Structure prediction request, 722 residues.
Amino acid sequence: MTDQPLLRVRGLTKHFPVRQGLRSTGLVQAVDGLDFDVQPGETLGLVGESGCGKTTTGRMLVRLLEPTAGSIEFAGRDITHAGRRELRPLRQDLQIIFQDPYASLNPRHTVGRIVAMPLQVNGIKPPGGIKARVQELLELVGLNPEHYNRYPHEFSGGQRQRIGIARALALRPKLIVADEPVSALDVSIQAQVVNLLRDLQRDLGLAFVFIAHDLAVVRHFCQRVAVMYLGRIVEIGDRADIYERPQHPYTRALLSAIPDVTRLGPGGRIRLSGDVPTPLDPPSGCRFRTRCWKAQDICATQEPALVPRDGGNQATACHFPEAVGASLLAEGAPAGDAAGAIVEEVSP
Amino acid sequence: MDSSDPAPSGEPDDRPTVPVQRSDQDAYLRVTDLRVRFDTEDGVVRAVDGVSFAVERGRTLGIVGESGSGKSVTSLAILGLHDAKRTTITGEISVGGRQLVGLADEEVRRLRGRDMAMIFQDPLSALHPYYTVGRQIAEAYRVHHPEASRREARQRTVDMLDRVGIPQPARRFDQYPHEFSGGMRQRAMIAMALVNDPALLIADEPTTALDVTVQAQILDLLADLQAEFHSAIILITHDLGVVGQVADEVLVMYGGRAVERGSVEQVLRTPQHPYTWGLLSSVPSLHGDADADLLPIRGNPPSLINLPPGCAFHPRCRYADRPGDRSRTEVPELRPAGPTGEAGSAGHLVACHLTAEERATLYAEDIASVGVAR
Prediction:
C-alpha cells in the first residue's frame, strides 16, 4: 500500500427521496456506505446488476451528484461537498466517459470543438495551440486528425466513443471514471475500444474507475474489482481473487450466470431465484439474503461487515463466505471440471 | 430464381454446393433464398440477400450478427411484420408446409400468434402501458380462440403466467406492465407468445436488456418450455455465449448474407469464416489470459445501402489481400466447409474464398494462438 491513495472513499452514501405530491414518502437507498481506495495508476472495476448503485457511485465520484453522507478524498483533498469553484482545478485531474456515445456529444459542435472544450473552459493554452493539441488527441485515440471539422453524426458508434475518450484525455487527467464505456457498442467494436483504453491506461499511467455490468470486460481491464449489490460492496479484491477465488455467494452466482462461449450447453449454474429487491425497502441484515441459498437467521438480523479474510487484499461481506482457497474457476481448467464444481441447484 | 444464388437444386453434380440440408426438407420452418429489400430515399437497402435455413420442431437455431447484419429483418419477414409498402420480399418461407411469401396479410395474420410468435428485446415497449398484462395476454388468446369465453381466456392466461414462473399469477393478471420488473415483464411476454402454443417461436435478443442472473433464468425457462411444447425456436442475438448455451444450430450473418452455418459445436469449436473468428476473438472471456489483448475486427460493419463488392467482409478481413484473392470481385457462395467427406464437418457451410486447407492453417496460426476461441 502506498502512503496516499489517489482516491479515498469512506462511507459514501446516496439516498434519493421519493415524493408523492409534496410529501416525501420514502428513500431510495441507491448507494449505502461504500469504502474503497484507488491508487495512482490503478484500475478498479465496479460491477453489479442494474440498480446496484454503480452508476450513482460514479456520478458522485466526479461530483455530478451530491453525496448524502460519507466522504470522497481526491489526492488528499476532501471534495465531498466542494463547490463549483473549488472543483474547477480538480476537474482537470478527474474526468468521466459516458456510456452513450450518441447522447454525450453535442451534435451541433464539430469534433474539434468538442475535444477542445475542456481546454477552453479551463483557460489552458497548450504549447503549439489548441488545434495541434486536439489533433494530437484524436491521433492518440485512433481517429484521423484530419476529421477535426466533422460532426458527430459522421462517425460510427465506436468512433464517437473514441471522441468521448479524447475529450476526457484533453486535460491529462489522473483519474477517469468510465461508466459502461463499451456496452452500447457491437462486439467487434467493443474489443477495439477496450484495447484502446488498456493502451492509454498503460502508456499514460491513468487510474480508472471502470463501471460495467459485463464481468468479462472488467476482467480484461481492471486490476481490482468491487462487486456491488443493492447499494453495497459485497466483495472487493484483486482480479485473480474475485474471478478465481470468489468468497461471496453473489459473486459466485454472478460469475456462473455468464454464458461463456468457451462452454457449450446449459452446464452447471447457480440459479438465483427472483429479482433484485427494491432499493426503496432493502432486506434487513444482508441485502443478498433473499436470494441466497446459504442464508441463515443471522443474515436477517445482522449486517455482515466488509472484512478482509486472512489479512489478504480480498474483503467479503458475508456471514458464510466460501473457504479461502476454494477455487471456482481455475484458469485454463477444462470446462467439465470447472462446471462440475459449481453445480448447486437452488430451490426457489 | 437468381442463377448466382446458392440454390438447393439444379447444381451440377461435381460442385459440392448443397446449402440446404437433407433434414431441411421436413423442417417446420424452411427459408430458401430469402431476399428482403427496402426502398429508401437514399437508395435500395438489401437487408437480407439470399439467406437459407431451416428449423425443426424441438430445435433451436441461433442467428448471430452485429447491428445491420439483417438478423432482425429476417425474423420480421418470417412473421410478416415488415412495412409492405416499402419492402420487397422474394424467396420462400415455409411454415408448417405453408408458403408465406406472397400470402395475403389477412392469412399471415391468422398464422401469426397461433402458429408462430415472437418475443421482443424490450418488453416494456412491446406491452401496451394502458392495459393490464393479463388482459393483453387473454386478448392474444381470444383472437385465435373466438369460441373461448372471457373466463376461459382468463384461466388460460393465469395458467400461462404461472407456467412462466410469475408468482401469484391471479393477482398479477390485473396489474399493469409498469408494475412488473424487467425479468417479470419478459416472462409475461413469453407467456403471451406461448399462450396459443405456437410451433415456431422467434426470440429477438430476448435477454439483452436483462441482468445476467435474470438472463440465466429466462434462458432456462425457454429451454424448459421448448422441451414441454416441442416448439422450433429462432434465437436472434449478438451474444455468442448465449448461442453456445442454448442453440443447436448457428447461422452467422454479415451484411445481409449468411457467412457460416452449422451445428453449435462446428461453428463455435471449429469456426471457418474469418468473421466468425473475429467475433470469437473479440469477445472477452472469463477464462484464458486476462492480460492478453483482445483481437478485434478492424473497421466497422458495412452500410447495407452501399455494400462492399464481392465478399462484404473483405474490407475488414485480415486475409483479403493474399495473392490471387477473389474476395473483392466475387461473392463467395455458401458451400461445405470441410474437405469433402471429412468426418465431423457434415452440414458445416461457409461462404469464403479461402480453401479448407488455407482456413485450417490460418486458424491454427493466427486465432488459436490467441487462446480465445477454445
